[in-house]
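Justification of computing resources. Each target in the renewal requires a structure prediction run like the one illustrated here; the chain below, 447 residues long, is used simply to show the kind of job we budget for.
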Amino acid sequence: MTAEAAGVDALPDPYEVHPVEGRLDATVALPGSKSLTNRALVAASLADGVSRLDHVLFADDTEAMLGCLAELGVGLRVDRRAERVEVTGNDGRVPAGPRHLDARLSGTTARFVAALALLGPGPYRLDGSEPLRRRPMDGTFEALRALGTRVTELADGGAPAPGHLPVELAGGPATGRTVAVAGDVSSQFLSGLLLAAPCLPAGLRVEITGGLVSRPYVDMTLAVMAGFGARAAWVDEASIEVGAGGYRATTWRVEPDASAASYPLAAAAICGGRVRVEGLTARSTQGDVGFVDVLARMGASITWRADAVEVEGSATLHGIDVDLADLSDTAQTLAAVAVFAEGPTRVRGIGFIRRKETDRIAAVVSELRRCGIEAAETDDGFVVHPGTPHPATVRTYDDHRMAMSFALLGLRAPGIRIADPGCVAKTFPGYWTLLEQLRMAPGETSG
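Resulting structure tokens:
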């Protein structure tokens, strides 16, 4: 456990957020991207030598990935203070089992590591904490079966749950060359297969069925693969071709987390004043950087710099109608901003987030109502009407993004308390420190 994570465990529960006095004026340095960290760890673990990853995120989700890779025999030299990991790759091979792989609460880890079963004979028992057991794995399991992997859902105190953990994987290497993957539940199903594909003898062609949600995350996967020397490209809107040949070891720096950046940038829009995020630029490979454009549509002022992005709040925010299918991890953040806009905000295109850590649509609406804000569910999103939040203790449903987004309400409205504040350790152990540092004297720096 990192020092930051230990500090999260020591927080009062519930945690009260105190309003900001005056306008914000802060420059923040954010941790590395969880999505990029876990993708780079997998690529480096399959590479042909020693890779160095810098600005690595150390949080529950990435610690889960590190633990699984270590169990699979990958050499890891971890320097948390320097935010660095040196990875000795296994040149595309995954050792035989039995291996016991614990994905903890990390859906990304579970779906990526499951795909590695295509490269080894197994058996590999893959499991996670109870909330992860409730999340769907059927898209990954169906694809693995189609490629020749034996997938056996396991009983653990009851009947096996089809399409869910725990599971035993065995029978690799893969026998197929083409596979169909459902793209309308989670892009992680697709990304996991893509990451393993360069190490298959003939590569892999992936056909996407049912449409694709969160395409920017798939493009991010392809960008990381290319950074480690793999050959992969879109053939058309519904298929990707991955060439054989594996990965080359390299040095890779992880970008700041664009999803995490949504919180301090939203704080500027909500509270007024200026917040600058270092290291996040318009060239980012992360789709969630598009949240900056959403804030601009609502009336915030945006300045892109060569090495940073800056948001300045305006006197008036406007409600908007927006499709967040490609940046769904920012939907809860936008819900918090929408409370302080003039006019309602409708968020569309995110029906699939009902199957995330919790039903994020229902949770957002329930907790906004708990705070006295009028909100309603729709088939594929929600509608938020502006208002003044009442004092309340917000439930977080084991969901880090519920905690981080609803805390933003407390920067403007007194009496907002966040239950289970430690759940932010999943992706952002230093979140509460950051939130307090946003209240520092003008011109000082937080990180």
